Automatic annotation (TrEMBL):
Residues 259-408 form the DUF2399 domain. InterPro entries: CHP02679, CHP02679_N, DUF2399. This is TIGR02679 family protein. The lineage of its organism: Bacteria, Pseudomonadati, Pseudomonadota, Gammaproteobacteria, Chromatiales. It comes from Thioalkalivibrio paradoxus ARh 1. Signal peptide: none annotated. Residues 35-237 form the Conserved hypothetical protein CHP02679 N terminus domain.
Amino acid sequence: MSLDRERLQRLLGGPGTERLRRRLRERLGRGGGDTLTLTRSTPEERAAVERLLGRAPRSGSSLRVSLPEIDATLARAGIAPGLRAALEALDGPIRDQQAEQQAETRRWQALFEAVRERAAPLGLEAWLDELAARGLLKRLARRDPARAAALLDQSLTVLEALPDPGLNRSTLAARCLGDAHGLDPGQPAAALVRRALHRHWRGGIGDDRPDERTIWAHAGILVGGDITSTVLVYQLPVQGDTPGSRMLRIQNQVGEPAYLTLRQLLRHPPRWDCADRDVFVCENPTVVAEAAERLGTECAPLISTGGRPGAAVWLLLEQLRDAGARLQYRADFDWAGLSIMNSVLARFEARPWRMDAATLQRHAEVPGPPLEGPAAAAPWDPDLAPTLAARGTALHEERLLDELLADLSRSPANACAVSP
């Protein structure tokens, strides 16, 4: 059927019906829905529909039209083969948005599939799936597939170069990206690499809110020298003649705790002699100080995180785990302490050290400050969180010193036995 352009222009053309035509085009382009409701319709729009459909004028500002009815009316009147042909004659071709969206989806799927073989040896297929599902790559690339492909290539180039213990992040960026600042916060490739390190690369990081140093230290990379991230240790057994081992051996012999920096742990790591040995981990440095004072060199290996673990703590725990240590872990009895335990247990096969409801109940009469922050569960002991909530106050490690030091004593009477 041919078009009667003159009648079509008279019925639907002109600026007065431009909004109506645009909405009809959008509906056809999306390929869905038989009716269209035009709110706050103008007299010109209502008159156009009334002339086209031959119906009496209606009151009200809301205009409801049937697309199949308009389509049939145009064809029956010999004005146009149908609504789509009429709208395209007046304003040009209608975009097939559904087909465009399907084509775009296929392009992005192909983009991810093209690098899956590179990601597989790194154990990063789940990283690709997450990027695809959450749209992070699409946002960083500003919806440009070519830019997205370049960002994926850059990110995988960086990840393929890891780990590289002791290397500065700026050096890594210069080597892999040709830009020493290419992995700084705010850079698109940095966001993708950080996501991989945090959630997927070699098991990811247990902490849900790791800082920048912790994320990069997971791959052995230093940020800004990393002498401010430290971990307090006491009587950790070492072997060999590396600089780190020599330093700690002297500290152990004289019964003095030592702070190790992230830089030391990455560039001059001691050779740990911890296979099948218990290593105790607490939250507060006071426990270490009291252990050194009361137990001297007869103290079991002990670490203090100084609160929520930072980069140096996470790295040391990784090194000790890889050396075969059995980690015995605890924190304060408060919501933050339970949250810390959850982070650690998500990453390591650690055993809670007097971090249970029974220990808390034995000290029911010991006062403490009010609980603060959001409540946390304790999956390793389902009774702990309800017991702590009912208590309503925290119980810090310093109030358990006698029990903790008894566990740490290496005298024949104690021999590191941990009792509930």
